[in-house]
Amino acid sequence: MRCKCRFCGSVARITSSNEISLEVTHLYCQCTNPKCNAVTVRDNSYSHCLRPPIDDIDTLFLDRFNSMGKEQQQQLLRQMTGNNTPLN
Ligand SMILES: [Zn+2]
Q1: pLDDT tens for each residue of 1-18
Q2: Phi/psi class of residue 67: alpha, beta or left (left: φ > 0; alpha: ψ in -120 to 50)?
Q3: Which structural domain range is residue 38 located in?
Q4: Within this chain, do residues 14 and 38 fall inside the same structural domain, yes or no?
Q5: CA of 11 to the centre of ligand 1 (A)
Q6: What are 30's strand-pairing partners?
Q7: Are residues 40 and 11 in the same domain?
């Protein structure tokens, strides 16, 4: 990963990183322009999740399924499996 030097606009190379927390990592960037050669620190931070981990999806589904009434559960299972056999 590369970034742009904020002083001269040249490409800056990330030379190391320091994880501050699960949310923030400091990236140490060195400008590749020999006439500038600036070293800066950038924050790389977590923004948001587009899709939760698979285990979380399973948990969310099971929680939602368990909160349904028995008739809703049967209807959902019939839709998912094409099976018309009622649950016991
Ligand atoms: Zn520079």
Answers
A1: 789 999 999 999 999 999
A2: alpha
A3: 2-45
A4: yes
A5: 7
A6: 13, 39
A7: yes
